[in-house]
Specification:
This protein is 31% helix and 23% strand. By secondary structure, the protein is α/β, with parallel strands linked by helices. A 6-stranded mixed β-sheet has the order 7-6-5-8-9-12, sandwiched between helices. The chain has a 3-stranded antiparallel β-sheet with strand order 1-10-11, with no helix packed on it. A two-stranded parallel ribbon has the order 2-13. A hairpin with a 4-residue loop joins β6 and β7. α4 runs antiparallel to α5 and α6 packs parallel to α7. The chain starts with 6 loop residues before the first strand and ends with a strand.
Length: 315
């Protein structure tokens, strides 16, 4: 039986001549060019109303470490800031207000494992994810925040500690581009993502904001446990990068697919195929969304065939 989460279209497997084609790799030039998109994300209501925008504005409004005042709780305030002593005395919820923190840490955990090197429209998931990571890096630079990254290739994780300088940003972009050119050649190892999350948690020395950019294909129970620990320690944004073929079943027919290195014929003409296919990916996504709600992680879906500036909003 062929598992949906293990299949990969053969046409997405690239040769040397195809590596230069747009949408198959994230070049250094493309990552550097994301700087021009920063201004589009800093203006409210400039998004296409047909695309649901993900609001990640709070990521770049850090909570400071110095308390400024105590006032009555208002809708939208962080429940973690409630002053329970004053609340008990007044019988009305009161919250602590902090001075806005400067020089914050912004982390990106970028998943470039083999499942990310798939795409049927415009570009591979790995390319979209890399552009998102680059854009967040430029936003951190613009806001004078320290930017760090953990880049996961399916086996190992390379960590860049947060810094606020162009040399650091360029080094991150070069490594992303290098892994992108390898085309997901590294076989994803079991539990490698969990170890990557644990490595990130260990490296967080202060309260930070963490963006996990992935398709979450490798996130099982153990990975979610590590994510829960991360969410208790810091603010987490889960950015789910997906291809439309993962949301809608392909046209009925026979397809050549690759399953763990073996070439197979995949028949999609069964009457029950469409329903099973859609349910599989929908249930997988719903489980991650439920997890995010439970542990107060922010969830955002990003399609590969729609410009990221139309799907993300940072104010």
């Amino acid at each position: 039986m062929v598992r949906f989460d293990n299949i990969k279209a053969l046409w997405a497997k690239r040769n040397k001549s195809a590596e230069a084609e747009k949408g198959l790799t994230a070049s250094l030039d493309e990552l550097m060019a994301q700087r021009r998109n920063v201004r589009y994300l800093q203006v409210r209501n400039r998004l296409d109303t047909s695309i649901q925008a993900g609001d990640v504005k709070s990521a770049f409004k850090g909570r400071g470490i110095e308390m400024e005042e105590i006032r009555e709780y208002a809708f939208g305030d962080d429940v973690r800031d409630i002053d329970w002593r004053v609340t008990a005395r007044k019988n009305v919820p009161y919250t602590k207000v902090y001075t806005e923190e400067r020089d914050r840490e912004i982390y990106v955990l970028l998943d470039l494992s083999s499942s990310m090197f798939f795409g049927t429209r415009k570009e591979l998931k790995s390319v979209t994810a890399s552009k998102i990571a680059a854009l967040l890096g430029w936003l951190a630079q613009e806001n004078k925040d320290r930017f760090g990254a953990v880049i996961f290739d399916g086996k190992t994780a390379l960590q860049f500690k947060p810094q606020q300088n162009m040399a650091q940003l360029l080094a991150i972009f070069k490594k992303i581009s290098e892994i992108s050119r390898n085309g997901g050649a590294v076989k994803t190892e079991p539990k490698a993502m969990r170890k990557t999350l644990q490595k990130l948690i260990k490296g967080l020395k202060s309260r930070a904001t963490v963006f996990v950019v992935s398709d979450f294909a490798t996130f099982g129970d153990e990975e979610k446990e590590a994510m829960a620990v991360l969410a208790r320690k810091t603010k987490v944004f889960c950015i789910d990068v997906y291809d439309m073929l993962e949301k809608q079943a392909p046209t009925p027919g026979e397809y050549m697919i690759e399953n763990n290195g073996e070439t197979l014929i995949f028949d999609t003409r069964s009457k029950s195929f469409d329903d099973e296919y859609v349910k599989f990916f929908a249930n997988k996504r719903m489980k991650m969304q439920d997890f995010c709600k439970k542990f107060d992680c922010h969830w955002l879906e990003v399609r590969t065939d729609v410009p990221i500036t139309r799907q993300m909003k940072i104010i």
